[in-house]
Amino acid sequence: MVHGSEQSPAIGNSRALLLAGLGISVFVYDKRGTGQSTGIYTQNFELLAEDAAAAMTHARRFAAGRFGRAGYWGASQGGWVAPLAATRAHADFIVVGYGLVASPIEEDLDQMILEVQQQKFSSAHIDQIRRLSTVTAKILTSHFTDGLNELETLRQEYKTKPWINTINGEYSGAMLRMSHADLKRIGRAVFDNLELIWDYKSSPVLEKIQVPLLWIAAENDREAPSARTLQQLAKIKKINTALQVYVFPNTDHGMYEYTEMSDGSRQYIRVTNGYFRLVAEWTQEDKTPFTGKAFSLN
Predict the structure, then answer these.
(1) Rounded to the nearest 5°, which phi and psi values hold at 243?
(2) Distance, CA of 126 to CA of 270 (rounded, Å)
(3) Alpha-carbon distance 70 to 93, whole Å?
(4) What CATH number has the domain bearing residue 83?
(5) Are residues 209 and 72 in contact, defined by beta-carbon separation less than 8 angstroms?
């Protein structure tokens, strides 16, 4: 199990126990810098993939003679790490839940566009958001050596825009609202301190994979908007015919069902019925796995 960006430990995670209850043996480890693992916490996908590949080697040795196939189940940020690890550990299958086929930069942009649409701002405001994303991407990919003056120009231009205090994205809103002086002093320490590969391209990795791959998306995911990912998966499916894609409607990140409140916030209810059974039964090579309310894009 390759967990997401959270810094909490994975050992003892209830989701692994739920899969175990459905007949799947799950090897769980605390990724570096969390729980019982040593090292420094990082979000470097390549380094985390090396760790996941080493974990697969250990799991296979530990369970020798007691398993059939061995693969990865990656959730959220694990959707970037698990496929990359699979290419190094020769996994037999891969399951991704609510992950992205997009870079962290694209994730931030898509979050902001979704926020603009939900708050009923105009297409002109979306164009402004795209300009903001281009500048913050320059800052992050240069590790704060380029683009700061351009952001200050936008800051002055956008300071009276109606969205200035309500659009966040993953980081661009906060960067825009931080002062130029503070960004120069502490911006990198705040926004670029986890070795994240900001322009990481996952499509080339997925295009190399020829083992069975199950991708499960949350239709109304605010944390990891799925539209771009589903478009990319449709292209990848032409290369890997073993790719299967399911989308659970009326779910947010983590596959949570929710009630939307009058102010636009969401009250989360439960993990949607069918998510864990789909993961388990597909892994067990059931030809007709239970899918709950999910619809297939296969």
Answers:
(1) -75, 130
(2) 32
(3) 7
(4) 3.40.50.1820
(5) no
Q: Within this chain, do residues 129 and 264 fall inside the same structural domain, yes or no? A: no
Give tens-digit pLDDT for 167-226: 999 999 999 999 999 999 999 999 999 999 999 999 999 999 999 999 999 999 999 999
pTM above 0.70, yes or no: yes
5 belongs to a structural domain = no
